[in-house]
Amino acid sequence: MSLITRVPEANIWEEICKEFAFKCPPFKDDDEESVHTVLEDFDSSRTNPVFFGKMSSKINVEDTDLDFHAEVSHPACVGHTFLDRPAKPPSPPPPAKPDKKKCTPRQFLENYIFPVLLPAMEEMLRKARKEKCFERKRTKFNALDFLTEFIYKNNPNLKVDREKVELLDISFVQEWLKDHPRPPLPLSLIWTEKEAALKIQSFWRGYLVRKDPEIQELRQWQHEWREENADITRKVSDFWYNKMPEGDKPTPNASEEVLTATDINIAVQQPVKT
């Protein structure tokens, strides 16, 4: 005969306590893994900011007779003497560069190419990060154009100020673009995030206004009015052509017939002075 047992319902509070106890680290009574305290003599040169950046040496106060003056010294300096830092030796002069025409390719790269190219590439990476080239697939930033402009401005062999010179102002760049013109960049690469957001917002606001029923009715009326009044010049010309078929001929003028008649003498009188 089978026995039917009833499983007690789970207590939510006990489950929370068990979960919390499971997450807590185990408690240890022994102090084996704890850090033991190391007793040392107090050294003011390690903790006081008076000794920061200075060289000092500890002396025995009992063997020497010292007069401490609080107005010119600090209490932490008692038992220490300050030493002057030795002068920094001058850096050795750089070695002379080998001759360009006689040196090996490795020497030419290390002495003439890398000193100019590596700073330019470092500045290029900073500019690329600023232009968010590491975040987007397409940007307006051109690394080769930046290197060309940067090296042209910072040419170590010339002392001419080229700080204000831009890429398109360089003579050999202008000659290259004459033979190899570039297509214009799309607006998606030229606009900044603020400009693009402004365009999208203005378009969306315009859409919300245009979909209004009253605005739709007004636009429909404007469309019909434009179709009705389209080519108004031609309609006016057709109207006058139908009304006056001979409108291009001169209108008869009685004064012209009188003036052109041969049997009529016209006398012109001079004004009489009174």
Gist of the model:
The chain has 274 residues and is mainly alpha-helical. Helices cover 43% and strands 3% of the residues. It has a two-stranded antiparallel sheet with strand order 1-2.
Question: How would the blueprint of this fold be written?
Answer:
Elements (H helix, E strand, L loop, with lengths): L11 H12 L20 H4 L7 E4 L21 E4 L21 H26 L12 H11 L17 H9 L7 H4 L2 H18 L2 H16 L3 H12 L10 H7 L14
Antiparallel strand pairs: 1-2
Helix pairs in contact: 3-4
Describe the model:
By secondary structure, the chain is an all-alpha fold. It is 43% helix and 3% strand. The protein is built from ten helices and two strands; from the N terminus they run ααββαααααααα. The protein has helices spanning 12-23, 44-47, 105-130, 143-153, 171-179, 187-190, 193-210, 213-228, 232-243, 254-260, and strands at residues 55-58, 80-83. It has a two-stranded antiparallel sheet. α3 (105-130) crosses α4 (143-153). The longest helix has 26 residues, at 105-130. The protein is flat, with a radius of gyration of 49 Å. The mean pLDDT is 77.
